[in-house]
Amino acid sequence: MRFSIYRYDPEQDQAPRMQDYHLDVEAGDMMLLDALMLLKAEDESLTFRRSCREGVCGSDGMNINGVNGLACVTPMSSLREPVVLRPLPGLPVIRDLVVDMSQFYKQYEKARPYLINETPAPRTERLQSPEDREKLDGLYECILCGCCSTSCPSFWWNPDKFMGPAALLQAYRFIVDSRDQATEERLADLQDAYSVFRCHGIMNCVAVCPKGLNPTQAIAQIKTLMLRKSA
Amino acid sequence: MTAVVEHDFDAVIIGAGGAGLRAGLQMAQAGLRPAVVSKVFPTRSHTVSAQGGITAALGNVSEDNWHWHMFDTVKGSDYLGDQDAIEYMCRHAADVVYELEHYGLPFSRLDNGKIYQRPFGGQSRDFGGEQATRTCAAADRTGHALLHTLYQRNLMAGTTFFTEFLAVDLVKDRNGAIAGVLAIEIETGDLHFIKSRATVLATGGAGRIFASTTNALINTGDGLGMALRAGLPVQDMEMWQFHPTGIAGAGVLVTEGVRGEGGYLLNKDGERFMERYAPNAKDLASRDVVARAMAVEIREGRGCGPAGDHVLLKLDHLGADVIKSRLPGIRELAITFAHADPIEKPIPVVPTAHYMMGGVPTNVHGQVLSQDAEGGDRVVDGLYAVGECACVSVHGANRLGGNSLLDLVVFGRAAGQHVTHMLATEHVERPLGEDALDPALDRLERWNLSSGGERVEDIRNEMRRTMQNDCSVFRTEEVMQEGIQKIEALQERLRHAHLRDKSKAYNTARVEALELENLMAVAHASIVSAEARKESRGAHSRVDYPERDDENWIRHTVYFAGQPLRYRSVNMKPLTVEPFPPKKRTY
Fold this sequence. Notes:
The structure holds two protein chains of two kinds. In chain A, the strands form two sheets. In chain A, strands 2-1-5-3-4 form a five-stranded mixed β-sheet, with no helix packed on it. A two-stranded antiparallel ribbon of chain A has the order 6-7. In chain A, helix 2 runs parallel beside helix 5 (164-175) and helix 5 crosses helix 8 (215-230). Chain A has eight helices and seven strands. Chain A has helices at 32-42, 102-110, 130-134, 153-157, 164-175, 183-189, 204-208, 215-230; strands at 2-7, 17-22, 61-64, 67-70, 83-86, 93-95, 98-99. Chain A folds into two domains: 2-99, Ubiquitin-like (UB roll) (Roll); 102-230, Alpha-helical ferredoxin (Fumarate Reductase Iron-sulfur Protein, Chain B, domain 2, Orthogonal Bundle), CATH 1.10.1060.10. The N and C termini of chain A lie far apart (58 Å). Chain A is an alpha+beta fold. Chain B is of the alpha/beta class. Chain B contains 16 helices and 22 strands. In chain B, the strands form six sheets. In chain B, strands 1, 2, 6, 7, 8, 9, 16 and 17 form an eight-stranded mixed β-sheet that branches. Chain B has a four-stranded antiparallel β-sheet with strand order 11-14-13-12. In chain B, helix 2 crosses helix 3 (83-103) and helix 13 packs parallel to helix 15 (508-532). The N and C termini of chain B lie far apart (61 Å). The mean pLDDT of chain B is 97.
């Protein structure tokens, strides 16, 4: 297996470079993350994030042969060689495949991603019909890997002002939760030219989401609610 | 002199999984200033991988009672769990689940709008009667939903996060109380001393001591390593749960909820073999019982596949609708890691190291306990432990499914409440000596000065293989004694291992070297305790001592680094109800 991997060590390198690697093992059922760990055993300076190794923690998002994805659920057998690995695009690189995700998290926080309900909590659960609960499916499963937002040209241009698909998916997850009472404030928060409306429906987010979620649809729903409100 | 940035907080919590986040939330809501230190962004903690649910006797599906839950948990623990702690957990279960719902956790729902519950292994009604339906679920992504909800709630409450900071060691004050933690900021390599009046270990498990595990790569027992280096004990470390259904080869977890929803196990003859081992509960017997039955089937030549090395988990009969709505995550994992869509084909599964029942001993407030000279409990001032890294002990020799998430939130909250009360009612000072940071700095310096020797990677692989081969589902004296020698040799080799990459910025090689020291400490504690316990109880199954020995072994093992193993009595006195005396355990 052959690889070409983006390398950058801020203490040593003036500029990033691509480094070739070679692994002399059968791909078999191996995932890309398994291969990366074998490479790291040989070159311990090779740096990437990883944790759950099963596609639920969102640590190992990276750009794989030009497409964002999670290394741990990308089978080696699905990749043409040399496998070209780069950090998620559009965010500052800390080292090798590790990016600084602060901007991404800031936008997440801007979505006020928590249930707001000022009425006193009942002694037991707040009721929610299965139909209302179903509206959260496809929204709450986000793992914050950043694959979507960093594949979005609008986010590349305005990472400080356009919230990006991941944060907007969260915004909609709380807007649509029947238990949340802050829909008006939430929509008002988004009322500017950038936060939502820089989404031009390019749908890169949908194409790359490793969980099969559809942020574009959530964004369209937010736009519809905002237009209805202003009408 | 190394530069160290200093911070001062009311409390510092190490670990941002369910337990750490619940503790932090409790303190932030009470107006304290807590800091949460985590080596990964909080939602990447291993709680995210929990699937099936959180157990509480809400009675939403059928009549239920916390006291029945308590009975099941005591029995499930094979009578090694402390009954005061088990009562505390089961009594508070409904409250903490309702709290989570109020925080916004997207539980699945029943038609009447209440929280959805599913049957799980070891659950009964009326003290050992019919199967109960007690585990509250958000599809099969309950851990993900819980972790994200708690993180979100902490954002709302204003908890301070030190994200991607690796805790190196606990710092002691002049009186031996814990006064905070020294941590590395991974991005820069800078050192930070986070001083605090209360320090909470919430670092999760250490399943990475085994070659085959459901655990995330970050589950390296950092809190246990820190406690042991601080001269504190760990308890019941021989008790490791092997989850019956890890995907063969990959080790990825398949929730017990699959069997709760009606799935079952088959051997190569197509036989539903659990009927022979547990005639009543069958596939929903306790995890230790199911895992052992599977291992026996495989060992006796009834395993599936060309190598006969796994059994099959069949669920296609549940139908596509149930699988898609109740078990969507499992379907995704099975397709990705086993190339099997469970709507059509069974999933190949094998018992896989999953959960550490042992940990740092605590009382029900999460306060860490050490021992005095007479073997009595001694509270360690300033230190708490909650969640998987702690041993309070509610799981004893075998944890029931769905009790882990419950343990996190019940005792995370309890520790938060106790810290709040302590800081409100006592004048707490932690006077530091000039050399307080030295032990932690020395540990880092050892690696920075290493100039030759073995690779961390090689020692780690050998440790994981040793634990897998010598201290797994079935254990014997001879093999474990060899295993102890091998682990001790590896410990010595690790003292001379080489860190080649000494850079500062985002040096994950250094992180992994420090993690291996923690893993090695856990591995040694585990195999030494396992060798000492000369009986079979719960997950600890001795071929040479196949029976449970209540006369001699209803006691906890207590391990201090570098000392002979000690013991501690099991609490058989619940807080208010009558004790459950040990009985023969059948399902």
